[in-house]
Amino acid sequence: MFWADNVAKNIIDSGKFKPYWVDDMFTPSGFAHVGSLRGPLVHDIVFKALRDAGQKTKWTYVINDFDTIDGLPKELIQDFEKYLGVPLRLAPSPEKGYESFAEFFAEDFKNVLRGLGVEAEFLSSWDMYHEGKFNEVIRIALDNAEKIQDIYQKVSGSRKKDLGWLPLQVICEKCGKLGTTRVYEWDGETVAYKCEPEMVKWAKGCGHEGRVSPFDGNGKLPWKVDWPAHWKVMGVTIEGAGKDHSSAGGSRDIARELCKDVFNYPDPFNIPYEFFLIGGKKMASSKGLGLKARELAEVLPQNVARFLFTRTDYKKAIEFDPVGTLAIPNLFDEYQRCADAYFAIKEGKEGDEDLARAFEFSQIGNVEKPPKIRFSVLTQWVQMPNMEEEIKKEGLEEWARYARTWLEEFAPEKDKFEILKTVPENAKNLSDKQKEFLVSLSKEVAKDWDAEDFQTRIYDLGKETGLNGKDTFAAIYISLTGKDHGPKAAWLILSLDKKFVEERFSAFEV
Ligand SMILES: [Zn+2]
Questions:
Q1: In a 10 Å sphere around its CB, with 0-12 CB exposed, 13-18 middle and 19+ buried, how is residue 199 labelled?
Q2: Mean pLDDT across the stretch 139-166?
Q3: 47, 152, 322, 356: which could form a disulfide with 59 (CB 3.0–4.6 Å)?
Q4: Hey, which CATH number is domain 418-510, 1.10.10.350, 3.90.180.10, 3.50.4.10, 3.20.20.190?
Q5: How far does residue 138's CA lie from ligand 1's centre (Å)?
Q6: Residue 130 Cα, ligand 1 centroid: separation in angstroms?
Q7: Distance from the alpha carbon of residue 205 to the mean position of ligand 1, in angstroms
Q8: Residue 387 confidence (pLDDT)
Q9: Do residues 168 and 193 touch, judged by C-beta distance below 8 A?
Q10: 67 closest CA partner among 80, 82, 81, 84
Q11: Where are the domains of the chain?
């Protein structure tokens, strides 16, 4: 069974987790990396599997815009250092047209997600806190501060915090920072706090001390408490997280205990998904490795990009290493294979159902039949002159654009070729037989050939000259491109100007 259908089945069969409410979240502190796409895509696919199973399901994606800025992308350090410690929603946008730092990065990621067919309803954590929706859980957390500490200690083995620690931070009324405040007293109505100059390394508090209501957006729960608090406030019943959060003693374990002992809320169904690896390294937004999520659309059509996530079970890591490899052409090939299975089943023929589902879940809106021609062949076509007509005729313009991008940005050297305007230097080293063959071939070019027949004729002509297949075709490639390999010779020659090819081949006359 397709992995997401299996997850949906497990959820339904358990009889718990109703009403079905799938949720995930994102902190808009910089441009998201490709790796950050796995969470929302896994959740979106599971949501659609539940929907396909006839279940009424809600799907929300929370933007954690009440989080503190605790680090900055390199290019922003100079101008935004003074906002370290400030909530993402209170710092200005790096570019005009957005109301805040949070909105700028959140909008960017939302656009990427919508482009990939993610159908979640987006919610703002800041807004929910400011609308008073978190007031009840804040009260519960403050009343149970001791118990929360015990859970931290029991589950993750962390050291007991200072006496009087309370699970809340408030926005300093003087300097507007959240990440620097220490809340140390709770009287049931207000909390006392100090904006500490030395509490964290990355931001300096102003030293202000005050008392303030913890409610209506004045304060925020620390994220380990905030996570399960969201579940209770919203009614979430299904939420996964990267497997690093789900390891023993990790934040997911803490959240489960908090649900049970503090919030009195049933633990949601977990989907501990594996990483998305690029070049074998785990992508972390702080390290600046690999592709940004927004750049994926330049590299892959959106259906194929989405397919990257539908094709792999959430329990397996996705390894996507496009630089200097065939990862991208291979992905297209696999996409076509899965499409074939899908359309075979549609037409009542045999086909692998898992592959068909992987294709079906990759479709955004209406199901689109992909081109028949293989992407790897297309990468050759776009390098041949005079193939524009053919590409247009076959309706391959969209994929051709991605084929060109692949060649420019990612292709191994051996997959690139160029028809050289003059006879390549190394063509002089061709054997006499190879030269003789090229001259014979020059006399065949002008005929009105069908590509398949011409390919056979080339092979036979080589044989007649006393060459094996390898040397026959190498002669053609070397004479045109200077490399000893290339796309199917007949197609290559027929894509070129006949006069040009005749002249090139006949130049080897001894
Ligand atoms: Zn302050």
A1: middle
A2: 89
A3: 47
A4: 1.10.10.350
A5: 21
A6: 20
A7: 5
A8: 82
A9: no
A10: 84
A11: 3-135+224-276, 155-220, 418-510
Cα–Cα dist 299/283, whole Å: 18
User: Rounded to the nearest whole angstrom, what is the distance from the C-alpha of residue 228 to the centroid of ligand 1?
Assistant: 28
Phi, psi dihedral angles at 292 (to 5 degrees):
-80, 150
Torsion of CA 335, 36, 34, 322, to 10 degrees: -60
Following DSSP, what letter does each residue of 21-70 receive, concatenated? EEEEEE--SSPPBGGGGHHHHHHHHHHHHHHHTT--EEEEEEE-TTSB--
Residue 97 CA, ligand 1 centroid: distance in Å: 28
Cα 199 to averaged position of ligand 1 atoms, centre (Å): 12
Query: 94-117, pLDDT tens digit by residue?
Result: 999 999 999 999 999 999 999 999
Report yes or no: 297 and 305 within 8 Å, Cβ to Cβ.
Answer: yes
Phi then psi dihedrals of residue 419, to 5 deg: -75, 115
Please return the burial class of 500, using the count of CB atoms within 10 Å of its CB with bins 0-12, 13-18 and 19+.
middle
Residue 260 alpha carbon to ligand 1 centre in Å: 35
Question: How many angstroms is it from 25 CA to the middle of ligand 1?
Answer: 28
Pairwise CA distance, residues 387 & 418, whole Å: 14
Cα(163) to ligand 1 centroid in Å equals 22
Q: How many angstroms is it from 348 CA to the middle of ligand 1?
A: 68
Q: How far apart are CA 306 and CA 300, in angstroms?
A: 9
Report CA(202)–ligand 1 centroid distance (Å): 14
The end-to-end CA distance of the chain, in Å, is: 65
For residue 184, the CA-to-ligand 1 centroid distance in Å is 15
How far, in Å, is the centroid of ligand 1 from the Cα of 161? 22
171 C-alpha to center of ligand 1: Å? 8
446 Cβ contact list (under 8 Å, min separation 6): 498, 502
pLDDT in tens, 392-433: 998 999 999 999 999 998 899 888 888 898 999 999 999 999
CA of 112 to the centre of ligand 1 (A): 36
How much distance in Å is there from the Cα of 208 to the middle of ligand 1? Answer: 5
pLDDT in tens, 365-390: 999 999 999 998 899 889 887 788 88
Ligand 1 mean position to 258 CA, how many Å? Answer: 30
CATH of span 3-135+224-276:
3.40.50.620
Token readout for 183 is 């809340």
